[in-house]
Amino acid sequence: MCSLPVAAYADGSKLAFGGDDIALRSDEWFTHSAVTDLFIAFLHGRPWPAG
User: Fold this and answer.
1) Which residue of 2, 16, 24, 46 could cross-link 28, Cys pair, CB 3.0 to 4.6 Å?
2) Is the pTM of this model over 0.85?
C-alpha cells in the first residue's frame, strides 16, 4: 500500500453520523487530492500513486 499524505487533524477528531460518532487518529485523515489521485489510479488500473 502507498503512504498517502494525511490532513492535519488532531487525534480524536470525530466524524459525526446519524447513529454515532467515529473518532479518528491523526494519521487516518487523507487530503482531498490524495484520495482523488488514488481513485483515478484505481479507475484506470494504474499503480497506486507514490506518497
Assistant:
1) 24
2) no
